[in-house]
């Protein structure tokens, strides 16, 4: 494939111009038509978020018995339905719940849970079985099957997660809309991104990736000049990252999947303060993000998935923290959910397996639903598993 | 470039971490380049002073335990950096290269510094020795016993973790000539393999299942050593190891004819790794044009290569850890028991940008961008300033010395010939022709920023 064909295959496919906002036309030219399809935003809690102190079973005595020091008190809970309430720090998320924009899926996990952060995170990233090692991520395989360019999957970081790596297409990792562009900004890189004959060996692969990176970085950089959000986001990493994502979305970029992470959830000691701070950060950020998107008429095409690699042990430990556990809750946020509110029953603290919650929903059923009904691609092609699909979106 | 230089530099880029012009000149006229690389009698070990092992961890208070763990983490970091140093300065390049290879093959996550040193030296001592001894010693190392739950593998409740990976990843390859039932029975054969508190191997007689097992269709009361023996009798084991060696040392795409050839050499010589490597490095096909420069350097190859070329001594040695993490290959921290998948998986757009920028960052004392998402127990917002500080690369490069080691000779070997393996693309060649720089440092950075420098 020569460079011209390669660029042609990855250039902007124009979708039907329904309505291009004036500010977009002014910056991107009259012929520009913004991407109008669906987008998925994934937010990862790294370290194993304690789900029980996030979605609290505040009427369950065994919850308070198991956690004499660190349970969230009834008075600090934002009540949802049935016997569950949100951690009091998550006012923004509770509002989303009340508006019908949040679905809480309880007891999510997978068979034979692994308690290593890294392995369990890999399992969530690759959607593999516990005893299977895959080198591609579920979103990467979506990019492979459905997209043509790296920029269609963007992660807010300096390095790309396994989730975003396909066999042929690997997403783009960037700190903000400008960083990658400046990293590659030099006469030498510019000149070498113009390589005409790409051979099929590793040298060709490097040149092809360079051309791709160059093109994507410029695309993101140009779009970065279009819309600058004036909404108030928390001054935190996640706040900056979600703000960047909102700006990219509103600027009409054709990115289908965005990825952001919040770390620090490995709370073996002094959990309460640490986790409360992180949950507040998350809740404030997501709340600002949704408002920003709504204001720009972009929320209807966006769904946000929030997950962690595992939950934590039901019983607290002696250091005022919790150890690695198994099943956990997952959040889906969107404007027109099939099933908002509590998707299923809360955790059963009477029936534990070796002190851990037992999963009832396989996380891959959630992926299947997002792939089938949101990103519109047959989940079997991506997951290669035969699991029932949930119906959240 | 003169053909002999081309071959020699290629050999050292695969059997080591590269060589400079001065080193090449010292070797170029020798009749035999390969034997000094492959015939190593007493491999250097990783020398690292650990404090006396204290076994009263259980009696410590919570605070003491916390301090102890902190100290352990620090020691583990130091060992990692020490290994990077060892790779760039070791006397026997192939020992260094093989040790790194075996670390990826017997992939193991290690947090305990005592285990790390023990495991590394098991690999080093046997990296060019007998594969049989290597497998056996790795299986007896504390690192592997812990990582694959051999300690939990007991007579009454076998744990199949090690048995499965032994077949699937270490010797035969997935679903090759073993059954699920073999895995079950092999787990029984390995019951009782355990280690003492200080990490030395201990066979726990009481936990060993002495009963009859049926493995690969044979019945007897086999133990772990018997199983290894039985696996090695299968030629598939030699083939599987040779596949991995070929991909790592020769070419990412396997040539079946060459594979059969080296499989037979390995099998017929009783799994002698040194003989296998000698055969590869003396084969005509190893020096063919499509092999030279065909491999994407692993992050460790890239980092160690740069460190070696410029004798990099950064003020804060922790940048070596940050780089490993950033580029996706951290020693003692493979993604999982299958090791690093390698080849094109090292590269995505963002990582390529980072790798292409790396030489100019390191050689100009720039700032290394840092990834935040790997922090599981640190709040990223508190950490930012500290990370910024960590990312500063303050290396002290003696440019005149480097220049002395890279003296060009127009007819034999130019600077581009020394630094780049394989043919330059037309674009790269044109670019160099059109942008001729005069200062040695600028030329060096220009060459190292070419995509071709990512290959070896």
Explain what you see.
- By secondary structure, chain A is α/β, with parallel strands linked by helices.
- Chain A has one domain (3-25, 32-383): 3-Layer(aba) Sandwich (Alkaline Phosphatase, subunit A), CATH 3.40.720.
- Chain A has helices spanning 3-10, 22-28, 61-66, 91-98, 117-126, 138-146, 179-183, 187-192, 202-224, 237-250, 271-295, 363-374, 379-383, and strands spanning 39-45, 55-56, 77-79, 85-87, 102-109, 153-156, 172-174, 257-262, 302-308, 328-333, 341-342, 361-362.
- In chain A, the strands form two sheets. In chain A, strands 1, 5, 6, 7, 8, 9, 10, 11 and 12 form a nine-stranded mixed β-sheet that branches. Chain A has a three-stranded antiparallel β-sheet with strand order 2-4-3, covered by helices on one side.
- Chain A is globular, with a radius of gyration of 22 Å.
- Chain B is mostly helical and 456 residues long.
- Among the domains of chain B are: 235-281, no CATH class; 295-454, no CATH class.
- Chain B has 22 helices and four strands.
- In chain B, strand 3 (213-215) and strand 4 form a beta hairpin.
- The radius of gyration of chain B is 23 Å and the shape is globular.
- Classes of the chains: A alpha/beta (393), B mainly alpha (456).
């Amino acid at each position: 494939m020569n460079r011209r064909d390669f660029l042609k295959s990855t250039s902007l496919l124009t979708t039907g111009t329904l309505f291009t906002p004036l500010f977009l036309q002014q910056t991107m030219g009259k012929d520009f038509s913004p991407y109008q399809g669906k987008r998925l935003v994934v937010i990862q809690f790294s370290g194993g978020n304690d789900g029980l102190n996030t979605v609290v079973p505040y009427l369950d005595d065994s919850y308070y018995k198991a956690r004499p020091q660190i349970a969230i008190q009834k008075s600090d809970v934002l009540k949802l339905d049935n016997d569950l309430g949100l951690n009091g720090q998550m006012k923004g998320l509770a509002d989303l719940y009340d508006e019908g924009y949040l679905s809480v899926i309880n007891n999510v996990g997978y068979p034979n849970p692994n308690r290593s952060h890294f392995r369990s995170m890999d399992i969530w990233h690759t959607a593999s079985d516990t005893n299977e090692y895959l080198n591609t991520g579920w979103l990467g395989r979506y990019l492979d099957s459905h997209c043509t360019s790296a920029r269609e999957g963007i992660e807010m970081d300096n390095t790309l997660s396994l989730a975003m790596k396909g066999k042929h297409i690997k997403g783009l990792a960037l700190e903000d809309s400008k960083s990658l562009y400046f990293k590659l900004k030099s006469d030498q890189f510019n000149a070498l991104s113009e390589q005409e004959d790409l051979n099929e060996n590793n040298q060709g692969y490097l040149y092809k990736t360079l051309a791709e990176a160059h093109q994507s970085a410029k695309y993101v950089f140009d779009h970065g000049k279009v819309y600058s959000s004036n909404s108030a986001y928390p001054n935190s990493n996640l706040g900056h990252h979600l703000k960047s994502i909102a700006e990219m979305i509103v600027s009409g970029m054709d990115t289908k999947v965005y990825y952001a992470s919040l770390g620090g959830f490995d709370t073996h000691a002094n959990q309460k303060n640490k986790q409360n701070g992180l949950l507040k950060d998350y809740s404030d950020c997501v709340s600002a993000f949704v408002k920003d998107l709504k204001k720009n008429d972009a929320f209807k095409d966006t769904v946000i998935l929030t997950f962690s690699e595992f939950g934590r042990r039901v019983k607290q430990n002696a250091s005022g923290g919790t150890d690695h556990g198994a099943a956990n809750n997952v959040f889906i946020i969107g404007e027109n959910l099939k099933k908002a509110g509590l998707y299923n029953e809360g955790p059963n603290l009477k029936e534990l397996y070796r002190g851990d919650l037992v999963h009832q929903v396989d996380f891959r059923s959630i992926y299947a639903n997002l792939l089938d009904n949101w990103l519109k691609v047959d989940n079997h092609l991506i997951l290669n598993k035969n699991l029932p699909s949930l119906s959240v979106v | 470039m003169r053909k002999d230089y081309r071959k020699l530099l290629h050999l050292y880029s695969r059997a080591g971490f590269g060589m400079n012009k001065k080193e090449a000149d010292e070797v170029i006229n020798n009749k035999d380049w390969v034997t000094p690389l492959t015939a190593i009698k007493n491999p250097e070990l990783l020398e690292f002073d650990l404090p006396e092992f204290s076994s009263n961890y259980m009696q410590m208070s919570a605070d003491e335990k916390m301090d102890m763990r902190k100290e352990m983490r620090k020691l583990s970091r130091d060992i990692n950096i020490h290994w990077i140093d060892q790779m760039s300065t070791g006397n026997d390049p192939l020992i260094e290269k093989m040790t790194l290879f075996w670390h990826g093959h017997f992939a193991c996550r290690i947090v305990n510094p005592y285990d790390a040193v023990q495991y590394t030296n098991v690999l080093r001592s046997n990296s060019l020795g007998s594969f049989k001894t290597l497998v056996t010693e790795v299986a007896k190392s504390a690192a592997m016993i812990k990582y694959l739950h051999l300690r939990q593998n007991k007579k009454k409740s076998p744990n199949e973790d090690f048995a499965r990976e032994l077949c699937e990843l270490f010797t035969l390859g997935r679903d090759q000539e073993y059954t699920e039932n073999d895995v079950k029975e092999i787990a029984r054969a390995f019951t009782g393999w355990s280690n003492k508190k200080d990490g030395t191997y201990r066979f726990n007689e009481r936990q060993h299942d002495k009963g009859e097992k049926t493995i690969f269709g044979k019945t007897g009361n086999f133990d772990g050593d018997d199983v290894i023996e039985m696996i090695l009798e299968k030629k598939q084991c030699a083939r599987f190891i040779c596949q991995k060696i070929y991909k790592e040392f020769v070419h990412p795409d396997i040539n079946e004819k060459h594979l059969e050839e080296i499989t037979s050499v390995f099998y017929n010589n009783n799994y002698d790794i040194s003989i296998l490597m000698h055969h590869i490095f003396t084969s005509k096909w190893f020096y063919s044009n499509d092999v030279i420069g065909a491999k994407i350097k692993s992050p460790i190859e890239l980092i160690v290569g740069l460190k070696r070329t410029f004798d990099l001594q950064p003020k804060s040695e922790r940048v070596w850890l940050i780089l490993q993490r950033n580029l996706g290959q951290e020693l003692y921290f493979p993604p999982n028991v299958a090791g690093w998948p390698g080849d094109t998986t090292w590269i995505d757009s963002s990582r390529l940008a980072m790798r292409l920028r790396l030489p100019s960052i390191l050689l100009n004392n720039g700032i290394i961008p840092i990834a935040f998402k790997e922090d599981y127990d640190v709040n990223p917002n508190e950490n930012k300033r500290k990370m910024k500080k960590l990312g500063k690369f303050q290396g002290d490069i003696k440019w005149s010395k480097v220049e002395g080691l890279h003296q060009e000779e127009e007819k034999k070997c130019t600077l581009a010939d020394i630094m780049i393996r394989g043919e330059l693309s037309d674009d790269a060649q044109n670019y160099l022709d059109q942008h001729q720089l005069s200062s040695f440092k600028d030329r060096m950075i220009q060459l190292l920023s070419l995509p071709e420098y990512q290959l070896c």
